[in-house]
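Fold this: Alpha/beta fold hydrolase
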Amino acid sequence: MRPRGAACAAAGLSLVVAIGCTGGTDEAAPDATPTATRATTTPPRTTAAPTPTRSPADPVSIPGLIQRRHQGSDLRVRTVLARTAAYTSYAVTYRANGLTISGLMNIPTGKGPFPALVLAHGYIDPAVYTTGRGMPREQDLLARKGYVVLHTDYRNHARSDDDPDNDVNLRLGYTEDVIGAVMALRSSGRPEIDGDRIGLLGRSMGGGVVYNTLVVAPGLVDAAVVYAPVSSRPAENIDHFQRRNGDPVVAEIEAEHGTPEENPAFWREVSPLTHVDRVTEPLLIHHGTADDTCPLTWSKQTTAAFKAAGKDVRLVTYPGEGHTFGPQWRRSMDVTMAFFDRHLR
C-alpha cells in the first residue's frame, strides 16, 4: 500500500458506462471451481503516461474529464439505518462537482482508522432505486471484515441532486460521483476513516464506472475490483442494452454526439481502452461463464487490453455462474478480500 494525498484526486474520470445493464440483486447459480488468468508484468504505479488531448477537450469524453478539476467534500453522516455488533450503517451525503450525492456508509465497530472502499452499483431504474440498493451482501461482509464501506447512490438516484443531461451524456456523471466519493472520504477528517487506504468495488454498470476511474484518475485509489462488468466500448453497451430494446434515449444520444459511423473520434474518446496506458492500480475482474447479461467476452477483451498495455490485471472466471453470482459469491469475496487486504492493509 502506498500513501496518497487529496491532490491525487485532481486527475478526473470518465467512461461510457453500460447504459442500461441490470445489476442490482444477486441470485443463486450452479457451483463450480473458478479459474484465473493473470498479467505477467506489474507496471510502476508512481506515474502514469500522459494521454494526448485536444485543448479544450470535449467535456463529454475521457480527455474532457481528465482536464476537469474534480471536487469531493462535505461528507455528512445523517441518520442511523441499522446497528449490528460489527458495524453501524448510516445514511450519508457528500458533494461531488457541485452536486449533493446521497449514499449509505457502514462504519466498523472498534478503534480505527479503517481502510475504506467505495462501492459502485449496477443499473437499477432510478424511479425505483432507494438508498444503498445494489450490493447489500458486499456492504455487510466488507464492513464485518473491518472496512468502512461507502455505497454511492449516484446522481439522479434516491436523495441525490438531479442532472438532467446525464443520460444523453452517456452517464459519465456517475464516474464524477465516484471520484467525489473517494475525495470526500479522504478529506472528511473522521477518525474512523484512513484516507490513505481506499479501494473501489463495482459491479455490472458500476464495473464500467471503475474502469473509467482507473483511466482518468490514476493514483486516486490503491486497488480496484469489478464483478460481471459491462463492455469497455460504450457503443457496444448501447447496442446491447438500449438499441435492441427501443430506448428513445439512443436517438437523443446520437443526435447530440453522432453515431459511431458519423463521429468515430467521439466514440473512441469515451472508451477507457483508448486511454488504458494511464492506469497505475491493480485490477481484479470476476466474471461467470454463464452470464447472459454481460457476456464474459467483454471481460476477456478488457483483460487483454490491460495486459497488452503492461497493466496489473487478473481475470477470475466462474464456470456456470450467472450475472448476479450465487453459490460462488462467497468464494469470490474471499478472493476479493485477500486482494484488498494485500493492497490496502
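Residues 2-49 have pLDDT under 50 and may be disordered. The chain has nine helices and ten strands.
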